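@channel sequence for tomorrow's demo:
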Amino acid sequence: MAQQDIRTIGIFIDGGYYAKVDAALKKVYSRSLNLKGLLDYITDCICKMDGLRKDKVSITESHYYRGRYRVNDASSKHLLFEERKFEDSLIENDVVFHYKHLREVNDHGHTTVIEKGIDTWFALDTYEMAQYRDFDYTVMISGDADHEMLARKLRALKTHVILLTWDPDNSGSTSRFLREEVCTHIDLNKNTANDTALLQRLCKQA
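structure tokens (generated this afternoon):
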């Protein structure tokens, strides 16, 4: 805890998972994720969970991890504008972004996109920062079973591990094993099911 009377939050976003949620929201609701609304909601959930005033809770660090194309590839795929627009929203919300280049492999006419090392980077940074920054709450926005052991290791640091997930098109993109390893699971499928106001808060027009 950085200060005795302030509870600190570290947020770590799996960019591949975030993109899947965003794509599903566009498909189901014709909306996209509102990053600011999401970060504010996380703070509100923690305050409600532990009976804290909002001025006694602070998101001290937020990080986003994703693979992306090199500039020439992104340009040829007409992705540059959308990537820059999304980066603007990360900057505006004080989210530090971490990228590794994607690689395409062509095998007998079939192209496979390889995103190598991002999950490992995500896990190492999350664990290291939780250890040295001493977060009261460590929030992971992810659904990847590969992060199951990360969640277990984080709990050993005595940080309250929170998993936030959303599966708008019910594609089964969240690992049960990961859910079982965290202290608290914020399930936005459940929370938005009968709450139109919350859905509007977390989303914006696509």
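heads up for whoever presents: The mean pLDDT is 92.
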